[in-house]
Amino acid sequence: MSTIQVWSDLLCPFAHVAIHRLRVAREQLGVDVTLDHHTFALELFNGPHPRPGTDSEAVGLGQLEPELGFRLWTQPDWTYPSTVLLAAEAVHAAKEQGLRASEELDHALRKAFWLESRSIAHRQVILDVATEIGIDTTALAAALDDGRARATMMADHAVATTDAVQGSPQFVLPDGTSVHNPGITVRWEGPFAEGYPIAQNADPGWAERLLKQAA
What we know:
Layout: E1 2-8, H1 13-29, E2 33-39, H2 42-46, H3 51-62, H4 85-93, H5 99-114, H6 123-132, H7 137-146, H8 150-160, E3 170-172, E4 178-180, E5 184-189, E6 196-201, H9 206-214
Parallel strand pairs: 1-2
Antiparallel strand pairs: 1-3, 3-4, 5-6
Helix pairs in contact: 1-9, 4-5, 6-7
């Protein structure tokens, strides 16, 4: 089994698209490649997640992957997750149950936010999502409550502040090949979070090539 490191933020719509495309291509190819999730915490660079920027990016990228089901936030404003550090910790903590468990929790948390407007900042929501996909939530809750994954997540942030990782998403292969936000080009019509992102598919074959190289 090979692994691809995935550096991303849970509320990054570009990461949501790229990871989806990688998972779909993996299923089509039938290759044994696991995604090893690492945290590129945008909020540790930029402060609390800005909803206007996230909403506008989701609208733009939703046109590229309509089957992903991007949705604008539909719950009360005060439930919007301005931080997802605890959710990122949970993805790290789930690695105690295997990389596949961690990968599936990451995927489920993204769906919970983007499709269902669930506040994945909240401990109980994280545990509910984990329960729904068969994660051992007793073990996960214990890991969240004693904070054992926080140091690992912050170690990722230390790497993210260097030139080794450009941003969210970034994929690193076992041979050291590293690609940032593959397959999409984007420009803003107007200022960020106030204008509109114009996104285009630039390289439809990137996921297949990356998986074959990793495998």
